[in-house]
Amino acid sequence: LEKIIDIIESIAHEKGLKMDDVKDVVAVAVVKTAKRAYGEEYEYEAEIDEKNKTLKLFQKVTVVSNEEKTAEEENENIIGIDEAKEIDPEIEIGDELTYELPLEGLGRSAAATLQRELEFHLQRLLERDIFEKYKNKIKQIVTGTVIRIDNEENTYIEIDEVRAILPKKNRIKGEKFKIGDVVKAVIRRVYIDKSLGIQVELSRTTPLFLEELLKLEVPEINDGIVLIHKSARIPGERAKVALSSINPRVDPVGATVGTKGVRINAVSKELCNENIDCIEYSPVGEIFIARALSPAIITSIKI
Asked: Has residue 290 got a pLDDT over 80?
Protein backbone atom coordinates (compact mmCIF):
# COMPACT_ATOMS: atom_id res chain seq x y z
CA LEU A 1 0.00 0.00 0.00
CA GLU A 2 2.79 2.38 -0.85
CA LYS A 3 1.82 5.70 -2.39
CA ILE A 4 -1.65 5.24 -0.91
CA ILE A 5 -2.46 8.96 -1.32
CA ASP A 6 -1.95 8.64 -5.09
CA ILE A 7 -4.37 5.71 -5.11
CA ILE A 8 -6.92 7.67 -3.07
CA GLU A 9 -6.61 10.71 -5.37
CA SER A 10 -7.14 8.46 -8.38
CA ILE A 11 -10.26 6.85 -6.87
CA ALA A 12 -11.69 10.21 -5.77
CA HIS A 13 -11.16 11.71 -9.24
CA GLU A 14 -12.57 8.70 -11.08
CA LYS A 15 -15.67 8.36 -8.88
CA GLY A 16 -16.23 12.09 -8.28
CA LEU A 17 -15.87 11.69 -4.50
CA LYS A 18 -14.26 13.81 -1.81
CA MET A 19 -10.68 12.91 -0.82
CA ASP A 20 -11.48 12.76 2.90
CA ASP A 21 -14.42 10.41 2.29
CA VAL A 22 -12.26 8.05 0.21
CA LYS A 23 -9.55 8.12 2.92
CA ASP A 24 -12.13 7.03 5.49
CA VAL A 25 -13.32 4.23 3.18
CA VAL A 26 -9.77 2.97 2.61
CA ALA A 27 -9.08 2.99 6.36
CA VAL A 28 -12.29 1.08 7.09
CA ALA A 29 -11.52 -1.46 4.35
CA VAL A 30 -8.00 -2.08 5.71
CA VAL A 31 -9.34 -2.57 9.26
CA LYS A 32 -11.98 -5.03 7.99
CA THR A 33 -9.28 -6.92 6.09
CA ALA A 34 -7.06 -7.02 9.21
CA LYS A 35 -9.92 -8.44 11.29
CA ARG A 36 -10.29 -11.29 8.81
CA ALA A 37 -6.54 -11.96 8.72
CA TYR A 38 -5.50 -11.47 12.36
CA GLY A 39 -8.79 -12.08 14.18
CA GLU A 40 -12.15 -10.42 14.80
CA GLU A 41 -11.50 -10.14 18.54
CA TYR A 42 -8.75 -7.53 18.17
CA GLU A 43 -9.06 -3.76 17.84
CA TYR A 44 -7.31 -2.13 14.89
CA GLU A 45 -6.65 1.32 13.51
CA ALA A 46 -5.44 2.32 10.04
CA GLU A 47 -3.46 5.53 9.74
CA ILE A 48 -2.67 7.29 6.45
CA ASP A 49 0.60 9.21 6.34
CA GLU A 50 -0.01 12.00 3.82
CA LYS A 51 3.61 13.16 3.83
CA ASN A 52 5.08 9.76 2.91
CA LYS A 53 1.93 8.67 1.06
CA THR A 54 1.83 5.41 3.00
CA LEU A 55 -0.63 3.53 5.17
CA LYS A 56 0.14 1.92 8.53
CA LEU A 57 -1.91 -0.61 10.46
CA PHE A 58 -1.97 -0.67 14.26
CA GLN A 59 -3.43 -2.99 16.84
CA LYS A 60 -4.89 -1.12 19.81
CA VAL A 61 -4.74 -2.37 23.40
CA THR A 62 -6.00 -0.73 26.60
CA VAL A 63 -3.75 -0.43 29.64
CA VAL A 64 -5.28 -2.05 32.74
CA SER A 65 -4.08 -2.99 36.20
CA ASN A 66 -1.92 -6.12 36.59
CA GLU A 67 -4.72 -7.80 38.54
CA GLU A 68 -7.28 -7.18 35.79
CA LYS A 69 -4.88 -8.48 33.15
CA THR A 70 -4.31 -11.66 35.20
CA ALA A 71 -8.06 -12.16 35.57
CA GLU A 72 -8.57 -11.74 31.81
CA GLU A 73 -5.45 -13.44 30.57
CA GLU A 74 -7.01 -14.47 27.23
CA ASN A 75 -8.18 -10.93 26.38
CA GLU A 76 -5.68 -9.73 23.76
CA ASN A 77 -7.13 -6.22 23.74
CA ILE A 78 -5.69 -5.31 27.16
CA ILE A 79 -2.19 -5.08 28.59
CA GLY A 80 -1.00 -4.92 32.20
CA ILE A 81 0.42 -1.63 33.48
CA ASP A 82 3.86 -3.11 34.29
CA GLU A 83 4.28 -4.54 30.79
CA ALA A 84 2.99 -1.30 29.23
CA LYS A 85 5.49 0.83 31.19
CA GLU A 86 8.34 -1.18 29.70
CA ILE A 87 7.22 0.21 26.33
CA ASP A 88 6.24 3.71 27.51
CA PRO A 89 7.31 4.72 31.05
CA GLU A 90 4.79 7.58 31.15
CA ILE A 91 1.72 5.52 30.26
CA GLU A 92 -1.17 5.25 32.76
CA ILE A 93 -4.05 2.85 33.39
CA GLY A 94 -6.86 3.61 30.95
CA ASP A 95 -4.54 4.83 28.19
CA GLU A 96 -4.40 3.13 24.79
CA LEU A 97 -1.24 1.58 23.41
CA THR A 98 -0.81 0.86 19.72
CA TYR A 99 1.40 -1.72 18.01
CA GLU A 100 2.23 -1.38 14.35
CA LEU A 101 1.40 -4.57 12.44
CA PRO A 102 3.19 -5.53 9.23
CA LEU A 103 0.87 -5.32 6.25
CA GLU A 104 2.70 -8.30 4.77
CA GLY A 105 1.30 -10.37 7.63
CA LEU A 106 -2.18 -10.05 6.23
CA GLY A 107 -1.44 -12.98 3.90
CA ARG A 108 -1.77 -13.68 0.20
CA SER A 109 -5.54 -13.49 0.18
CA ALA A 110 -5.46 -10.01 1.74
CA ALA A 111 -5.28 -8.20 -1.62
CA ALA A 112 -8.45 -9.87 -2.89
CA THR A 113 -10.20 -9.31 0.45
CA LEU A 114 -9.13 -5.67 0.52
CA GLN A 115 -10.38 -5.17 -3.05
CA ARG A 116 -13.79 -6.60 -2.12
CA GLU A 117 -14.00 -4.44 0.99
CA LEU A 118 -13.00 -1.33 -0.97
CA GLU A 119 -15.58 -2.01 -3.68
CA PHE A 120 -18.31 -2.59 -1.08
CA HIS A 121 -17.59 0.54 0.95
CA LEU A 122 -17.03 2.73 -2.13
CA GLN A 123 -20.39 1.60 -3.49
CA ARG A 124 -22.08 2.54 -0.19
CA LEU A 125 -20.30 5.92 -0.31
CA LEU A 126 -21.43 6.54 -3.90
CA GLU A 127 -25.01 5.60 -3.01
CA ARG A 128 -24.96 7.97 -0.03
CA ASP A 129 -23.68 10.84 -2.18
CA ILE A 130 -26.26 10.17 -4.91
CA PHE A 131 -29.05 9.93 -2.33
CA GLU A 132 -28.07 13.27 -0.74
CA LYS A 133 -27.67 14.89 -4.18
CA TYR A 134 -31.19 14.01 -5.31
CA LYS A 135 -32.74 14.55 -1.89
CA ASN A 136 -31.53 18.16 -2.16
CA LYS A 137 -33.19 18.38 -5.60
CA ILE A 138 -36.70 17.51 -4.36
CA LYS A 139 -39.21 20.01 -5.86
CA GLN A 140 -36.75 20.92 -8.64
CA ILE A 141 -37.15 20.24 -12.37
CA VAL A 142 -34.96 17.57 -13.94
CA THR A 143 -34.68 16.40 -17.55
CA GLY A 144 -34.04 12.84 -18.64
CA THR A 145 -34.46 10.26 -21.39
CA VAL A 146 -37.16 7.58 -21.40
CA ILE A 147 -35.50 4.16 -21.32
CA ARG A 148 -38.44 1.85 -20.45
CA ILE A 149 -42.22 1.76 -20.07
CA ASP A 150 -43.61 -1.17 -18.09
CA ASN A 151 -46.93 -3.02 -18.42
CA GLU A 152 -48.58 -0.67 -15.89
CA GLU A 153 -47.52 2.34 -18.02
CA ASN A 154 -45.00 3.57 -15.47
CA THR A 155 -42.24 5.44 -17.31
CA TYR A 156 -38.57 4.94 -16.38
CA ILE A 157 -36.34 7.92 -17.09
CA GLU A 158 -32.54 8.05 -16.99
CA ILE A 159 -31.24 11.18 -15.25
CA ASP A 160 -27.45 11.27 -15.07
CA GLU A 161 -26.48 8.43 -12.69
CA VAL A 162 -29.95 7.33 -11.59
CA ARG A 163 -33.00 5.71 -13.15
CA ALA A 164 -36.08 7.61 -11.98
CA ILE A 165 -39.70 6.53 -12.23
CA LEU A 166 -42.64 8.60 -13.45
CA PRO A 167 -45.68 6.63 -12.24
CA LYS A 168 -48.81 6.63 -14.41
CA LYS A 169 -50.70 8.53 -11.65
CA ASN A 170 -48.11 11.36 -11.87
CA ARG A 171 -48.44 11.69 -15.63
CA ILE A 172 -50.74 14.21 -17.31
CA LYS A 173 -53.87 12.47 -18.55
CA GLY A 174 -53.63 11.49 -22.19
CA GLU A 175 -49.89 12.04 -22.65
CA LYS A 176 -47.85 9.13 -23.98
CA PHE A 177 -44.11 8.64 -24.06
CA LYS A 178 -41.90 6.34 -26.09
CA ILE A 179 -38.34 5.16 -25.57
CA GLY A 180 -35.88 7.93 -26.44
CA ASP A 181 -38.22 10.82 -25.58
CA VAL A 182 -36.71 13.63 -23.49
CA VAL A 183 -38.99 14.41 -20.55
CA LYS A 184 -39.14 17.19 -17.95
CA ALA A 185 -40.59 16.56 -14.48
CA VAL A 186 -40.10 17.58 -10.86
CA ILE A 187 -38.61 15.28 -8.26
CA ARG A 188 -41.47 14.41 -5.92
CA ARG A 189 -39.61 12.19 -3.44
CA VAL A 190 -36.37 10.24 -2.96
CA TYR A 191 -36.16 7.12 -0.83
CA ILE A 192 -34.20 3.89 -0.42
CA ASP A 193 -35.86 0.56 -1.18
CA LYS A 194 -34.15 -2.41 0.51
CA SER A 195 -34.28 -4.54 -2.63
CA LEU A 196 -34.11 -1.87 -5.37
CA GLY A 197 -31.76 0.71 -3.81
CA ILE A 198 -32.18 4.45 -4.42
CA GLN A 199 -35.59 5.34 -5.85
CA VAL A 200 -36.40 8.75 -7.39
CA GLU A 201 -40.08 9.44 -8.03
CA LEU A 202 -41.04 12.12 -10.55
CA SER A 203 -44.26 14.04 -11.15
CA ARG A 204 -45.75 16.14 -13.96
CA THR A 205 -49.13 16.68 -12.30
CA THR A 206 -48.21 18.64 -9.17
CA PRO A 207 -48.82 22.45 -9.19
CA LEU A 208 -45.13 22.72 -8.30
CA PHE A 209 -44.22 21.52 -11.80
CA LEU A 210 -46.17 24.46 -13.26
CA GLU A 211 -44.41 26.89 -10.91
CA GLU A 212 -40.96 25.54 -11.77
CA LEU A 213 -41.69 25.78 -15.50
CA LEU A 214 -42.74 29.41 -15.01
CA LYS A 215 -39.41 30.09 -13.30
CA LEU A 216 -37.60 28.72 -16.35
CA GLU A 217 -39.62 30.81 -18.81
CA VAL A 218 -40.10 34.06 -16.85
CA PRO A 219 -36.87 35.79 -15.74
CA GLU A 220 -38.82 38.10 -13.41
CA ILE A 221 -40.11 35.06 -11.46
CA ASN A 222 -36.69 33.43 -11.39
CA ASP A 223 -35.13 36.69 -10.12
CA GLY A 224 -37.77 37.07 -7.38
CA ILE A 225 -39.30 40.27 -8.78
CA VAL A 226 -42.61 38.51 -9.55
CA LEU A 227 -43.85 36.21 -6.78
CA ILE A 228 -46.05 33.13 -7.13
CA HIS A 229 -48.39 33.08 -4.13
CA LYS A 230 -50.36 29.99 -5.05
CA SER A 231 -51.19 27.76 -7.99
CA ALA A 232 -53.82 25.12 -8.68
CA ARG A 233 -54.21 22.66 -11.55
CA ILE A 234 -56.44 20.13 -13.18
CA PRO A 235 -53.47 18.55 -15.02
CA GLY A 236 -53.77 18.84 -18.79
CA GLU A 237 -56.97 20.89 -18.62
CA ARG A 238 -56.62 24.19 -16.78
CA ALA A 239 -54.60 25.97 -14.11
CA LYS A 240 -54.66 29.24 -12.19
CA VAL A 241 -51.65 31.09 -10.80
CA ALA A 242 -51.79 33.96 -8.29
CA LEU A 243 -48.99 36.49 -8.87
CA SER A 244 -47.71 39.73 -7.38
CA SER A 245 -44.76 42.05 -8.01
CA ILE A 246 -42.33 43.63 -5.55
CA ASN A 247 -41.55 46.28 -8.18
CA PRO A 248 -44.48 48.66 -8.90
CA ARG A 249 -43.15 49.19 -12.45
CA VAL A 250 -43.45 45.46 -13.26
CA ASP A 251 -46.88 44.08 -14.11
CA PRO A 252 -46.84 40.50 -12.70
CA VAL A 253 -49.48 39.18 -15.07
CA GLY A 254 -48.05 40.91 -18.17
CA ALA A 255 -44.49 39.75 -17.37
CA THR A 256 -45.64 36.15 -16.89
CA VAL A 257 -47.80 36.03 -20.01
CA GLY A 258 -45.13 37.69 -22.17
CA THR A 259 -45.42 39.51 -25.49
CA LYS A 260 -48.30 37.97 -27.45
CA GLY A 261 -48.44 35.21 -24.80
CA VAL A 262 -45.09 33.72 -25.85
CA ARG A 263 -43.98 32.85 -22.29
CA ILE A 264 -47.21 31.35 -21.01
CA ASN A 265 -47.74 29.48 -24.29
CA ALA A 266 -44.34 27.80 -23.93
CA VAL A 267 -45.35 26.55 -20.47
CA SER A 268 -48.79 25.50 -21.70
CA LYS A 269 -47.24 23.49 -24.54
CA GLU A 270 -45.09 21.53 -22.05
CA LEU A 271 -48.27 20.77 -20.07
CA CYS A 272 -50.20 19.31 -23.03
CA ASN A 273 -51.80 22.69 -23.87
CA GLU A 274 -53.13 23.24 -20.37
CA ASN A 275 -55.12 26.48 -20.19
CA ILE A 276 -53.28 28.72 -17.67
CA ASP A 277 -54.97 31.75 -16.12
CA CYS A 278 -52.68 34.32 -14.48
CA ILE A 279 -54.32 36.33 -11.68
CA GLU A 280 -52.95 39.29 -9.77
CA TYR A 281 -52.89 38.42 -6.09
CA SER A 282 -54.62 40.67 -3.52
CA PRO A 283 -54.39 40.42 0.27
CA VAL A 284 -58.06 41.48 0.35
CA GLY A 285 -60.00 38.23 0.29
CA GLU A 286 -63.03 39.49 -1.61
CA ILE A 287 -60.92 41.05 -4.37
CA PHE A 288 -58.73 37.96 -4.70
CA ILE A 289 -61.75 35.64 -4.95
CA ALA A 290 -63.38 37.84 -7.59
CA ARG A 291 -60.18 37.80 -9.68
CA ALA A 292 -59.77 34.04 -9.23
CA LEU A 293 -63.30 33.40 -10.50
CA SER A 294 -62.76 35.51 -13.63
CA PRO A 295 -64.11 35.49 -16.33
CA ALA A 296 -67.27 34.87 -14.29
CA ILE A 297 -69.05 38.18 -13.46
CA ILE A 298 -69.32 38.50 -9.68
CA THR A 299 -72.28 40.37 -8.18
CA SER A 300 -71.41 39.91 -4.50
CA ILE A 301 -68.99 38.07 -2.22
CA LYS A 302 -69.47 37.27 1.48
CA ILE A 303 -66.70 35.71 3.53
From this structure: yes
